[in-house]
Amino acid sequence: MNAVAHNAQSVINAAGSTLEFLSFTLGKEEYGISIQKVQELRGYDTVTRIANAPEFIKGVVNLRGIIVPIIDMRIKFKLGTPSYDQFTVVVILHLENHVVGMVVDSVSDVITLTPEQIKPPPEMNSALATDYLLGLGTVDERMLILIDIEKLMSGADMGLAERSPA
């Protein structure tokens, strides 16, 4: 078992008997993040662009006095040109060091998984960064790509690592 799979398994095992994930779609794939990191869900609204920000940072919004960066995950994961419609959702995340908004195509539901339903992520070559993957969750015929959103959002390429607490 590689270090990523071992770390993901320790997160899953520490959770006890079940884990709850908010499921959402990006393109044709379904993803899941820990429901404990979700602060609220909002429709997509206009954002204030920040000059020289990476393309995936759509801008910022003022959320009840807190300036929140908005990350479009479709651009971040290179899933084609995003379109914004009535199904587009901004998931407001409360992470350890900051609050951030994540744009996704749609939100499905909250899924409860047992550790047995979560398989370790496949081993990939080093060209593909997978250190933010917890694993793959299976529910009936559905497969969720489970993301450690804290790790993903605090990655050096996100530009959010040094933010002060909100």
UniProtKB/TrEMBL annotation:
GO terms for cellular component: cytosol. InterPro entries: CheW, CheW-like_dom_sf, CheW-lke_dom. The keyword Cytoplasm applies. Keywords: Cytoplasm. PROSITE patterns: CHEW (PS50851). It comes from the Bacteria. The keyword Secreted does not apply. GO terms for biological process: chemotaxis; signal transduction. It is found in: Cytoplasm. Residues 18-158 form the CheW-like domain. This is Chemotaxis protein CheW. It comes from Herminiimonas arsenicoxydans.
